[in-house]
Amino acid sequence: MTRAILRVACASLLVAGALDAQGDRHEIGLRLRTFERALEAEADPARRDAAFVELERAVQAFFGLDMKRVASSIDAASLALAGRAAAPVEQYARSLQLRLGARLVDAAGGVLTLEVRQLFAVDDQPDPPPELTVAWRTHADGAWARRPLGELPASFEVELGAMPPGDHALRWTLSDGDEVFVDRQLAFGAAADLEARLDAVRAAAATAKGLAPKSIESLTVGALWSLLRTTQRRTPYETELAGCALLAEAERLMAWVADPSGEPLYRSGRPGSFRVRVPVGGRAISCRLFVPDVGGASDVRDASDVGNAPNVAAASRPLVVALHGAGGSENLFFDGYGDGLCVALAKRRGWFVVAPRNGMGFVDCAALVDELAGRYAIDRGKVFMVGHSMGAMQAMSNASRAPRRYAAVAPIAGGGRVAASAALAEVPFFVSAGARDFGKGGAQRLHAALEAAGASARWRLYPSVEHLAVVQVALRDVFAFFDEHAR
Fold this sequence. Notes:
Blueprint: H1 3-16, H2 19-41, H3 45-63, H4 67-82, H5 88-94, E1 96-100, E2 104-106, E3 111-118, E4 133-137, E5 145-148, E6 154-159, E7 166-176, E8 179-191, H6 194-209, H7 216-230, H8 243-258, E9 272-280, E10 283-291, E11 317-323, H9 332-335, H10 337-349, E12 352-356, H11 365-373, E13 378-388, H12 390-401, E14 408-412, E15 429-434, H13 440-452, E16 457-462, H14 469-484
Parallel strand pairs: 2-8, 11-12, 11-13, 13-14, 14-15, 15-16
Antiparallel strand pairs: 1-3, 3-6, 4-5, 4-7, 7-8, 9-10, 10-12
């Protein structure tokens, strides 16, 4: 990646944190995940290639800080993948988004505001806009409500009444007569005694700030409180949040805060996917963490994966450190990059995954692994690292500093400095990029530098693929490469 792109990436990170852009980022994330699911299912090379052309425009728009064009290009990529064009009225409907006044409400009821607005302008936009109908239901057993859309932005107040406690999917549609153009979902939860429970979490988070030394538990309760606060605002978090599950996890941490001498909450024997903050040196690093169920592997995404994974019967399990690209966050390898394909592939094998928030500074992945290995049965001889774009550079920095800590490294669509050493020459690398990828040149130079340093470096170029979808396309090969070094 060139210095110019790095400067843009830094700016992207700043924009990514702005509240005004967060709603757009959330909607873009939803649309990208929908595209990734369709890409996973589409085998037609011509359709995939056409979609990659549109997705390349989305990547260029992202680094140009044009979030509206990112959304419109992802929408165009979805249509290309489906092999069809959309009439102007459908294009207009697809350009709209629905936003909620809150994403976690009291199960006893209340009033929720829904707002429909246009996310981006479309070519040949109808004038006047078509008379669409918006419909919604707040949970699977709820009744449908329908309203004429009218002038945008359009707001609707919904009397919730009593709702089933738990996390739900609010489903909404846009239609013109009997023709439905949009059918989407948003995460939405209902919790009993919500206000009192949020007050208790806030108090526990305040208490945890004074606890020393800092631990995963004391840091995480504050992080979860911050996430719960976002469920009460119209401007959403960058990805979907299961509010009731977050609240339940925060309440488990409340019990620990009341008695920090008790058993840690994050430990072996408690599988699942967690949002945590981990103390590493003098820093607290936000991470997504997947802990496998030692009872067995599951969630096979593809029949070709069956039988290819190594034996995972041993008590200790491999760990994959996953480093996202610029402008992203720790959520990408869990919710994006193929709709969470990295975690699905690790789950199939019974492996751990940790994805730290990766900024422009150095993230000490070896120290992060040490902290987690004090809690979990991680096989320190089978720690793998995958990084995308800026994450590829971060992976190379970590591999160069502590090469003996990693069993294999897979930089995707990025370069990085190679600090040649006898230890680094013993680390196997899988370097990859897409043929339409602006990171291809950096990845090719990295591969050459690794070979010059005496390392075993495999190279793979994926035809037609651009800078974003290359992660989804490459991940199965990456895990097959890790399998070779996990036996």
